[in-house]
Amino acid sequence: GITPGASYTMNASALWGATFGYLLTGAFGQLYDSDGDDDYYDETGFTRGDGVALGIMLGQLGGLGVGALLNATMQPTAGEAALASSVGMWATGVMTLLAFADLSYSYSDAWVRGLHAGAMLMAVGGMAVGGYLGHRYDFTRGRVLLMDLGAGVGGALAVALGFLFQGDDVSGGGLMVGSAAGIVAGYALTAYLTRGMRFRTERNVSLSAGPTRGGGVIGLSGRF
């Protein structure tokens, strides 16, 4: 009785929970705080690596709980869950690229904490927007996968164009900004091009059979 929507919601929630566990450890400084060359947990034997691992494990368990709650109360489809996760992922990626594009060679601990906290907020906001749009406009999981492909191609194409026109003079910050713009453009363009992508069994699937010499051919066709 497990539906594709329930399965995808639980899987995505577990992955995002682990991600949030990692981001929380970074937001509270657990990734880098130390006293000289010694781990700041030396007195208790609890190292920085232990803190990160514990945060990820607890986050994954919490994500599973949130996924179960979402599935029990809202019962999202696979398309809705996929779009929520996709928008959260790409929004966080774009924010991170823009943050590093404006970064000098040195950065403070406060900047690192802020980056992790900002990534969490951007992910939550992106997932909320994606979930709302997926419910309102009836996205399918296949369409979301195509949009992910479009975002990846857009970001890579922007980087390639940067090297093509600037050569060795291209800057790292410029490549990051261009990649962020390419991701947004590729994602939006693919969403527009696939706006008519629907799959309804009662209308768009047909089964045909025809004789051939020595046997027959059975065909199954579908239209999106």
What's the helix and strand layout?
Layout (H helix, E strand, L loop, with lengths): L3 H24 L6 E2 L2 E2 L8 H26 L4 H24 L7 H29 L3 H26 L5 H22 L7 H4 E8 L2 E8 L2
Antiparallel strand pairs: 1-2, 3-4
Keywords:
single chain; 224 residues; two-stranded antiparallel sheet; 7 helices; 4 strands
Describe the structure.
- 69% of the residues lie in helices and 9% in strands.
- By secondary structure, it is mostly helical.
- A two-stranded antiparallel sheet has the order 1-2. A two-stranded antiparallel ribbon has the order 3-4.
- α1 packs antiparallel against α4 and α3 (78-101) runs antiparallel to α6 (172-193).
- The two termini are 27 Å apart.
Name the strands of the widest sheet in spatial order: 1-2
Strand content: 5-15%
Task: Count all strands and give the number.
Answer: 4
Derived from helix and strand composition plus strand pairing, the structural class reads mainly alpha
Form type = globular
The first-to-last residue Cα distance is 27 Å
| Tally of individual helices | 7
Percent helix, as a range, is 55-70%
- Helix and strand pattern: HEEHHHHHHEE
Can I get a quick summary?
The protein has 7 helices and 4 strands; from the N terminus they run H-E-E-H-H-H-H-H-H-E-E. It has 224 residues and is mainly alpha-helical.
